[in-house]
Amino acid sequence: MTAARRRAVWIAFLLAPALVVMTLFVAWPLLAAFRYAFYGFNGLAAAQFVGLQNFREVLTEAPFAAWTWRAFQHNVIVFTVLMVAQNGLAYLIAFALLKTLPGHRVHQVIVFLPVVLSAVIVGFLWKLFLHPLFGLVNQALLLVGIHGPPWLGDESTALGSIIFTNAWHWMGFPALIFLAGMQRISRETLEAARIDGATDRVLMTRIIWPLVAPSTTIVVILTFIGSFNWFELPYVMAGLSGSPGGATDVLGLYFYRTAFGNVSSGLQDFGHGSALAVLMFVFIAVVSALALRVLRRREIEA
Amino acid sequence: MGGKRIGRLVLAATAAWGLAASAARAGEITFWTWRQEDKAAYTELFNDFTKANPDIHVKFEAFAPENYATIVSAALAGGRGGDVLHVRAYGGLEQFAKAGYLMPLDPQTVPELANLPDDAKAAETLRADGKVYAVSFASQTLGLLINKDVFAKAGVQPPETWDQLLSVSRTLKDKGIIPIANGTATAWMDEVFTGIFTGPFLGTAFVQDILAGRATFEDPRYVAALGRLLELRDFLPPGYTGIDYATGQQLFLSGRAAMFAGGSFEIANFRKQNPKLALDFIAPPAPKAGEPRYVSKFYDGGYAVNAKAANKADATRLVRWMGTKEYGDKFSALLGNISPIKGVVIQDPLLAQVAKLNDVSMPYIMAVHFRYESPTGSELLQGAVQRMLAGNLTPQQVGAEVTQGIARYYVPFQKK
């Protein structure tokens, strides 16, 4: 056996297990979901090929279309608010940490700490904090004479409360990515700007912002994918129905309860569920690919 | 995302195969269920069965309730799964039966079907072929759970009419007690709440009109009954829109609330959590004194034989035995559930009282009749009532939303 051939066999041997696992547990289920999306179901068994009917129904027929659209709008809100509030604040925190003020190491740990907790724990924790009777938040508000709303039970505050919890949980992650990006900027550049009289504000917006473009790309793409795949937090805090009255319903919940059924209310409907999953997959894949191209170009221009 | 979830399904199915393969010993059949908490009771019941049938041993295998249907359907699709399966009723049963996963039971092979009342059999019947696919295990009754100590302390009597409900609630509230423990944050409990309090206002006549296509959920009777629910908002816990099922239960168990609108399935659970609780279960209040106080009733599910069971004869013997009075007596005693089998004697006084309430009962409408196709009547009603109780929809709007949703597949609603 030649050296090149032995090398090829060796590589194949190392790749094979991973490839088998990926095929079995990632590629095959993905393809199965694609296939199911084009089938009508007889109870739980795929029965006949129905073409695009499942897609047409979830996108155009009442009441499914209204539910799909409502969930999608909520995902857009989640993405937008997280981009501005969570990632904006993360950027400010990263900048503050960059200045290596006294105690910055402790703060860095504190900021990152919630990220290591599981979403389920964070969800339960904040559900308790926001509880209308026993919750920390309303008890604290009561001390200053304010009767807080039932945060998760009010249609106007429920989604916002869960987005806030998400930001509390995840803030440290974009902060860390921004900080890493900022630390890569050469000292000379920052000092030169300082000598030219740049204030913090100018430094943040004119000098650092364009130079951390690669970090921004990562943060935007991950936030986008995370926002449109959002599931754990709303599931734990609002339940599968997107309570109250669908005010917290997002595509992840809607897809899940359609496909796998909501005990005590719904049925398993793999056809429509798969169609929703495929739509989510295609939307996320296409938009992130486009966004990636635009953001990469921006990095080069910067 | 979709891939990840389906991936889990595959994992579950693989696990299921492993279990089924390991259990395929001669004379041994497996029983699949979502009731992990009932393991001790079932082990005792199966021991009785083996005593009478020494050649058959039954293995108990439980899966998480929220994944049960997914795991079982994945296993059944692959020709595996337990020999005898715990299945749900109505639409939940149909999903399995329609796919051909379950063995039809007929009076020749399972004569014990004669021991079951008609509505129990209907709950486990596939509408398309009219065949029964499972032996019902329990009926559930929806009504009012009462904390007798709290009532005694406040010096009030459990309400028998709607007006009494309002006045008793007013008195309780004035004494600093939450009259009704329920909140609206858990969607399926909103359907329970609606079923309980609207039941006596609707009665069986209304259900018959719905089924005959003479009425929709926009019917003035239904809209008026929904409107009654709004009168109760004053007597729910503060911030009730944020109170979920678990909190409601705790408020009731701790004595902070006097009543809990719920099912007979709460009784065993409540007693376990607070053995000192002075619990009573009553029918919801009548519109006026002397009028019937309908409780809503439905069947939980049944025991079915896997159509591809390796040993159908033994599996059928187990299911036949599960339809006997002997089984029903012990099942009711051990699990605090009401077995629908004719002639079953319920020892527990409170459960016997609930069983008596079933004499004046009506079907739990959405679960019994409109949980077969999507969107189910249940999901439509739950979301809409949740919004109505929060003050964001009117009863008319709820009725219209539910009727339009169901009209997708229910022909009588399409004409109207």
From TrEMBL, chain A:
Similarity remark: Belongs to the binding-protein-dependent transport system permease family.
Keywords recorded for this protein, A-Z: Cell membrane, Membrane, Transmembrane, Transmembrane helix, Transport
GO cellular component: plasma membrane
Domain ABC transmembrane type-1, chain residue ranges per copy: 72-291
InterPro entries, sorted: ABC_transporter_permease, MetI-like, MetI-like_sf
Protein name in UniProt: Sugar ABC transporter permease
Keyword Membrane recorded: yes
Regions crossing the membrane: 9-30, 76-97, 109-126, 158-180, 207-231, 275-295
UniProtKB/TrEMBL annotation, chain B:
One cellular component term from this protein's GO annotations in UniProt: periplasmic space
Entry-linked InterPro entries: Bact_solute-bd_prot1, SBP
UniProt superkingdom: Bacteria
Signal peptide stretch: 1-26
Localization, UniProt: Periplasm
Keywords: Signal
Major localization listed first in the record, in broad terms: periplasm
Similarity comment: family membership: Belongs to the bacterial solute-binding protein 1 family.
Protein name as catalogued: Extracellular solute-binding protein
